[in-house]
Amino acid sequence: MYACSVSYSFTGTNINYDIIKTFSVENFFNDSGGGPANMEQLFTESLKDFYQRNTQLELVRLNGDLQFSGAINRYTINPQATVSTQDPNLPDRAGQMRLTIGVEVDYVNTVEEEYSLKRTFSFFKDYDPRTTSILQVESQLIEEIFESIIQDIFTATVANW
Questions:
Q1: pLDDT score for 55
Q2: Contact 94, 81 (CB under 8 A)
Q3: How many helices and strands, by DSSP H and E, does the chain display?
Q4: 52 in helix, strand or coil?
Q5: pTM as predicted
Q6: At the top level of CATH, which class does the domain 22-83+90-159 belong to?
Q7: Distance (Å) of CA 128 to CA 134, 138, 143
Q8: CA 72-75-79 angle, 5° bins
Q9: Are 81 and 97 in contact (CB under 8 A)?
Q10: What is the residue-level pLDDT of the chain in tens, covering all 161 positions?
Q11: What is the Cα 159 distance to its own chain's centre?
């Protein structure tokens, strides 16, 4: 007689906690040439916190069963929409600016090596430069972008999506 079993998880992970027990995160570096000085530390700590909250894995300093390393490799602010001025002597202005951040992640699954990956994850947020400056919204935008990138990393590495 054959039996089937179905495993459900509220976080959607496909981690076998009988064989995968730990994870480690090396400090991510900022190779983008932009952003605030604490951006790399913010990303590293946010990644650790997310996995601690959403898995049963224990965070270890080195050589976890799941290992994360990488770098922030893109930090750009580009105009997305122009606003025409009524005066033909004045140039058009940016009506919307986009902050884009990319993070290259090297994920090593030491137990199930076929799930290891090296990939860049990126996300963006827009803001209106006519009503606010990047200095006023930068930290909030970075936090929101990191949340999206970390969710994508989680989905790509340990989630069943």
A1: 95
A2: yes
A3: 2, 6
A4: helix
A5: 0.85
A6: alpha beta
A7: 9, 12, 18
A8: 160
A9: no
A10: 444 433 334 446 788 899 999 999 999 999 999 999 999 999 999 999 999 999 999 999 999 999 999 999 999 999 887 665 566 665 566 678 999 999 999 999 999 999 999 999 999 999 988 888 898 999 999 999 999 999 999 999 998 55
A11: 15
In the numeric block, which tokens belong to residue 114? 């076929």
Contact (Cβ atoms closer than 8 angstroms) between residue 65 and residue 111: yes
What contacts 66, CB < 8 A, 6 or more positions away? Answer: 20, 22, 23, 24, 57, 107, 108, 109, 110, 157, 158
Tokens in use for 92? 């058009």
Strands (E), 8-161: 22-25, 29-30, 58-59, 66-83, 93-109, 117-127
